Amino acid sequence: MTGPATRTERDPLGALEVPADALYGVQTMRAVKNFQISGLKPLPAFVDAVVRIKRAAALTHLDTGRLEPRLARAIVEACDEILGGAHRDQFVVDVYQAGAGTSHNMNANEVIANRANEILGAARGTYSPVHPNDHVNMAQSTNDVIPTAIRLAIISEIAPLGAALAALRGALAAKGREFDGIVKAGRTHLQDAMPIRLGQEFAAWSVTIERATRRLNDAAEFLGDLGIGGSAVGTGVNVEAEYPARMIAHLREMVGPKLRAGDRVQLMQSMTDVSWFSAALRSLALDLSKISSDLRLLASGPRTGLDEIILPAVQPGSSIMPGKVNPSIAEMVNQVCFQVVGNDATVAMATEHGQLELNVMMPVIAHNVLFSMQILTNAARTLDELCVRGIEANAEQCAYWVERSAALATALAPQIGYTKAAALAKESVKSGELIRHLAEREKILPPDELAKVLDLRRMTEIGIPGETG
User: Fold this and answer.
1) Domains in the chain, ordered, with CATH?
2) Looking at the annotation, which residues are catalytic?
3) For residue 469, what pLDDT band results from cuts at 50, 70 and 90?
């Protein structure tokens, strides 16, 4: 039997067989053979970002006359096909590869060149009239393309993440209003604490998400600084003087207006802007994980836990215990958040390991930041749609626990002193008798005054229990 059809291509290292139907070429094929590591391929947002840079470069060189119009237009058409969803299976280089992302860059250059040549009537693998290096990569280096692509890719993914967070924030706030009348036991150190309204807990989570979103947006502002035009070491060798400004103008049309020229040497050396954004993602993950863990605690039971809220049942919880329903969505979110924390650790290490004029660890930075954004977006949306919106309050159980909280003695401390209040709390825990009943039996306050002091709703607002005004 004969194997799949191939074509022979050559690069400075010699000849290599490439699948005959591949849009990629010899340099991509070498990377595929060299880096059989994870099976992970570049994420779509990263592919889009690199292709947008190639498209902008062709338009820039069309503007300046450096690239023949028919070649520029063929490159742009090839890029538009990819951005429209075609040829995605041709981006085949493993995430873990040689530093800087040269293999990613050449994968894009070869795919675009071969498709442009087909548009012009030439065969794949001829690289004439459009050449991957001479035309698609004109005035570019991997060293300015990849850091620019990382920034563009992140910027393009902020809107979906922001939308998912906004919806989740809104759902939490709505539950805060819905549950505002339900007073429950507060807990600190997982021990009894002063009462709080269930709505206050949910409203606070909504504010937490709002603050996390603001941190993400603040960090994203720095990503608008682009070093495109820096070429090999940031100095702009082989780049026309007008190239950076024209590139940014064309990229603005595709990505948005908040792009601007930055210090090309600095932006090639440092990936700290990206690591800061990754750190903001990590902070968001910590918030989401804490909220998810709280939901799991509040829903624990239903007979041997807190059972203060009821989460929507989305799937059977056990293969052996009939009727068991687990907090599956919250558990998923926890796991996503753990992954994001690990991704951020990778980004931090890779950011520190840039040497002199270039950070060569960019491929793993790109993958981890974009992967974090992807899974956080999906997790936040799922938490909103399949969990938070359907949460019900178990008002009866909330009332049951709050009346049994030994911390209610705190409300009596301003009237009877800390020592007596502590003794009352200790006796309540020992005997099982409610603070309210102990106080009534021992007549520590007149009945009407005691009722005001032990008004549970009043305890959830600022002020001294029992005092008016």
Assistant:
1) 18-138 (1.10.275.10), 144-232+261-396 (1.20.200.10), 404-459 (1.10.40)
2) 318
3) low
Which pLDDT score is estimated for 1? 54
Q: Which among 211, 159, 205 is positioned nearest to 179, based on CA atoms?
A: 205
Convert the pLDDT of each residue in 71-98 to its tens digit.
999 999 999 999 999 999 999 999 999 9
**Cα angle vertex 430, ends 426, 432, to 5°?**
110
Mean confidence (pLDDT) of the chain: 96
